[in-house]
Design a protein that fits this description.
It is built from 9 helices and 15 strands. The protein is an alpha/beta fold. Strands 10-14-9-13-11-12 form a 6-stranded mixed beta sheet. Helix 2 packs across helix 3. It is rod-shaped and about 110 Å long.
Length: 320
């Protein structure tokens, strides 16, 4: 009989519970021996030793059956309960081992989803224990989603600046103007580029960018126009959101407006369209943002490194 450090006898072990349960359910040591994968002699010796340690009989022989005593019946009932709970615990531990760790990511700009899935696919091969989830519904509310712990990582152009968050640049994207070859904007080219102020009276076509980027675009155009002309625009510039890139370019092709896009999103072949650089250059910077404390110890640094590589590949100049 083993004793704990405080000298209280430790009488029962899991093997004892299995022994009593088996004998009670089988009604004898012979059938119990088969259940326990032991010899009949071994079961008899273990039962006698347990009764000796407890100082009480657990079974009485009645005819050919072994019937539990009051203590034996109590112990058999508790053994069944405890062993069932132990089995449930073991199964839950197995499930926990096999369950993958969720890592949720979103982006404030839908154009990021053109390269982000490739990055996530690469990440998944190197981190099979992580289950990635792109939370598209948080696209328009990335900051709120981060603060509410609805996502773990966000790709944004306007990152929060307080110390709660870790920030890392993923990509800096050149912004260009795309217009039909016959569009009047062509006449405003200066040294092969457009000044932002040239867009002051145009219908400006943009993808579904964030309110922050819309405000920044309006401010850049209005400031540039005031600097060039000396006049202030009495109203915001005309902007039209077109969520589908193909539709946006098709509208530009018909002369319905001038598209403002990240250069890397523009296809290599643009029949009837021209790409114009904008000056001064105003790259759109995308940041990965996540909680600095990283409470679940997610491999976010690895994810960001892979995202940066995928983004860099996406922005390589496209050959015509």
């Amino acid at each position: 009989m083993q004793r704990t450090h405080d000298s209280v006898p430790r009488l029962l072990e899991v093997r004892h519970l299995k022994l009593v349960r088996a004998v009670a359910e089988a009604g004898g040591v012979t059938r119990a021996a088969g259940t326990l994968h032991l010899s009949q002699s071994a079961v008899s010796h273990q039962l006698l030793a347990l009764e000796r340690d407890l100082g009480a009989r657990l079974f009485d022989r009645v005819g050919k059956r072994m019937v539990p005593t009051a203590m034996g019946a109590h112990l058999a009932l508790q053994a069944k309960r405890l062993l069932g709970e132990l089995s449930d615990l073991e199964r839950s531990m197995d499930g926990t081992r096999e369950a993958r760790i969720p890592l949720r990511i979103t982006s404030s700009c839908y154009t990021s989803y053109s390269w982000l899935p490739a990055a996530l696919s690469h990440f998944a091969t190197t981190h099979p224990q992580v289950e990635l989830d792109i939370v598209i519904e948080a696209t328009r509310r990335t900051t709120e989603a981060l603060a509410a712990d609805e996502v773990d990582v966000a790709i944004v152009t306007d990152p929060p600046r307080d110390d709660v968050w870790e920030r890392e640049v993923v990509i800096a994207s050149e912004i260009v103007a795309v217009a039909a070859k016959r569009h009047p904007i062509r006449k405003r080219l200066s040294r092969g580029a457009l000044r932002w102020g040239a867009l002051h009276d145009c219908e400006v076509l943009v993808p579904d960018i964030s309110d922050h980027d819309l405000a920044r675009l309006d401010d850049v155009v209005r400031t540039s126009w005031h600097r060039e002309s000396g006049h202030r625009l009495p109203h915001p510039i005309a902007v039209r959101k077109v969520p589908v890139s193909d539709a946006l370019l098709e509208l530009a092709r018909t002369g319905a407006g001038v598209a403002i896009l990240d250069r890397w999103t523009v296809p290599a072949h643009l029949a009837g369209l021209e790409i114009h650089s904008l000056m001064p250059a105003a790259p759109r910077v995308f940041y990965a943002v996540w909680r600095r404390s990283n409470p679940r110890q997610l491999p976010i640094a690895d994810l960001v490194a892979i995202a940066k590589a995928a983004a860099a590949k996406a922005v390589k100049p496209k050959r015509a």
